[in-house]
Amino acid sequence: MDLARHLKGQVKKGHYPPLLKGKTLAMIFEKPSNRTRVSFEVGMFQLGGMAIPIQGSEIGMGIREPIPDVSRTLCRYVDGIMIRAKSHTTLEVFAENATKPVINGLSDTFHPCQAMADIMTIQEKKKSFEKITLCYIGDGNNVCHSLMELCSLLNISMVVTCPKGYEPSIAIPPYVTLESNVKKSIQGADVVYTDVWTSMGQEEERINHLRDFKEYTVSLDLLKYAKPDVLFMHCLPAKRGEEVTDNVMESRYSVVFDQAENRLHVQKAILVTLMKEGGVYVD
């Protein structure tokens, strides 16, 4: 986080230290991408390196070629690999056979880069994590899982509220609680977070999700139950009119585009930490 803030400050001054000059990042996309691809690619460029985007269909991991073979081959060419995977198992098998750093750009179970950017944004806006409560409303999905783990590590209280049958599928860590009543869960919240009701790969279930989540829309009326200076967060893309109303997205509470920007800075810090020999000291 310190390094991410430092690198962000450098960008604001127009400084782009070539910390990864001559380094190459392979980016494998088994799922569509906007923010993940652009932020990683721009990040490598700003750090003096280069990124190579590879579509999952081009290499066919597990179909055209075994995952371990792809991993061991790419590690002979590049200095790091970022994967946006359909299955978390794919990511784990790839990493087990890799000799270079492997970054989870998203899987069906976790989205750690997003959570890191979210926490960075909260720290920027609230200055401290002390006595902060984050209320997550919606599907207990990959974003929710990573937020749960990171909030637990940082002692941030997190309340997860979702319809029955949509609860998180990982163990509930310390500092995280489940609450079924939406209005109760949001009371006193410093941060309210939501995500799409239907994630990529679940399109056939959309009708059921619209029915089950109809009481979970984040509206201005619902935000009245939170603190007056509440932050509204969304990892994007958003379905305006479903999980969040348009006027919340455009309100003074919304920091969704600050989150999106911070993906760039957090990921640059991750890349430098993993790929630069000796690391970087930030006072």
Strand order of the largest sheet: 7-6-5-8-9
Reported by name, the CATH topology of the largest domain is Rossmann fold
Please give the largest β-sheet: 5 strands, parallel
Classified by CATH, the class of the largest domain is Alpha Beta
| Number of domains as seen in the coordinates | 2
CATH homology superfamily name of the largest domain: Aspartate/ornithine carbamoyltransferase
Give the end-to-end Cα distance, rounded to a whole number of Å.
Answer: 12 Å
Gyration radius over CA: 19 Å
Count of alpha/pi helices: 12
Low-pLDDT segments: none
Supply the CATH architecture of the largest domain: 3-Layer(aba) Sandwich
Q: What's the helix and strand layout?
A:
Blueprint: H1 2-12, E1 24-29, H2 35-46, E2 50-55, H3 56-59, H4 67-74, E3 80-84, H5 88-96, E4 102-106, H6 112-126, E5 133-137, H7 142-153, E6 157-161, E7 176-178, H8 182-186, E8 191-194, H9 206-212, H10 220-223, E9 231-234, H11 246-249, H12 256-275
Parallel strand pairs: 1-2, 1-3, 3-4, 5-6, 5-8, 6-7, 8-9
